[in-house]
Write a structure and sequence with these properties.
It is a single chain. This protein is an alpha+beta fold. It is about 55% helix and about 15% strand. The chain has helices at about 5-20, 145-160, 165-175, 180-200, 210-230, 240, 245-265, 270-305, 310-335; strands at about 35-40, 45-55, 55-60, 70, 75-80, 85-90, 100-105, 115-120, 125-130, 135-140. The strands form 2 sheets. Strands 1, 2, 3, 4, 5, 6, 8 and 9 form an 8-stranded mixed sheet that branches. A two-stranded antiparallel ribbon has the order 7-10. The chain starts with a helix and ends with a helix.
Length: about 325
């Protein structure tokens, strides 16, 4: 692949968009709230309500059940490191919760979603994704497996769109590769690596605490910044010669970051295979679209024959390093 200066020009535009996005999104920390309602008897339900905790603060979203719903016993609240979990046992009368509105006050003021799972007494279940633009839902008949799969697919796409640090790392990889074949190897290695750890963590075989994980992800971006400068100056290093190896190594780390967004939903074991498949597919779709966007922009800049001074070409790389350094120290400080 030729025209690395064109890549640097593209980086200027993309970095600006990412930094604007980062002002409203905490990278890899915008996890959805989770509501599970299980019908235990006619008109009676077991309710699990999980809200994320980010930077020590609970997501300002509440659960409002329909009028007439009463508690059968005192609710139980459990404080976890990354979320607050509330368990309730309620009675909604002979007509049950079907066709009644459940509201999520405060959701419209956030940039996250609520993943809702409904389990009926006959064993059927459905999953829905509630967005800030429509902070309420009505329980209806089961929507089936396809609708559930679409909900997890959308969640995977949104996780990457709001994961500015992940996209910044991918952009850094693109700035290092020099040939089309090396680009294919690098992106494939990154995809394989984060798919492995996403599966391992989601299935419960391994895990990394979220605070140090987020700090390490920021450090992976900071690692790429000086490598890009070396490549611009014609120097060589292991990363420049073998970017696919570095992409694979750090991809394992980013996979745990993806898993934190999926496992934070508190998924039942029966939903894990479908959730894992569709969530990862959503991640890959968004990543591929991002790479294609960069390549299209590269072709456009080449046709326009736009040329920047040296400082203009290097500025995006220094911004990348500065932002990732800020993320690293901020996340490290948040751990203590």
């Amino acid at each position: 692949m030729t025209g690395r200066p064109i890549f640097i020009q593209i980086a200027s535009a993309l970095l600006l968009a990412m930094l604007l996005a980062s002002s409203v999104a905490q990278a890899h920390e915008v996890r959805p709230a989770y509501l599970e309602i299980t019908e235990t008897a006619p008109g009676q339900y077991r309710v699990l309500w999980r809200t994320p905790v980010m930077a020590g603060k609970r997501l300002p979203v509440a659960l409002k059940m329909p009028d007439g719903v009463r508690d059968l016993k005192d609710p139980m609240v459990q404080e976890l490191s990354d979320s607050l979990v509330e368990r309730r046992w309620v009675d909604s009368g002979p007509n049950g919760l079907f066709d009644k509105r459940i509201e999520f006050p405060g959701l419209q003021l956030t940039i996250t979603d609520v993943l809702v799972r409904i389990v009926r007494s006959d064993g059927t279940c459905s999953t829905d994704l509630i967005r800030p633009s429509r902070p309420w839902m009505e329980i209806a008949v089961s929507r089936g497996t396809i609708a559930t799969a679409v909900a997890f697919l959308e969640q995977g796409i949104e996780h990457i769109l709001l994961g500015v640090d992940h996209l910044l790392f991918v952009l850094g990889l693109l700035l290092i590769v020099s040939t089309p074949w090396m680009l294919v190897k690098t992106i494939t290695a990154f995809t394989v690596a984060h798919s492995i750890t996403l599966a391992i963590a989601t299935l419960g075989y391994a895990s990394i605490p979220v605070p140090p994980l987020n700090a390490a992800i920021a450090l992976s971006i900071l690692f790429l910044a000086p490598e890009i400068i070396r490549a611009r100056q014609g120097e060589m290093s292991f990363t420049i010669r073998h970017p696919w190896a570095v992409a694979f190594a750090f991809g394992l780390l980013h996979g745990f970051g993806f898993a934190s967004g999926l496992t934070a939903m508190g998924l039942p074991k029966a939903d894990i295979p479908l959730a894992l498949l569709m969530f990862n597919l959503g991640v890959e779709i968004c990543q591929i679209l991002f790479v294609i966007t960069v390549l299209v922009m590269m072709a456009s800049f080449r046709k326009l024959d736009i040329d920047l001074p040296l400082w203009g070409r290097l500025l995006p790389v220094y911004v990348m390093g500065t932002v990732s350094a800020y993320w690293f120290w901020a996340r490290l400080a948040a751990m203590f």
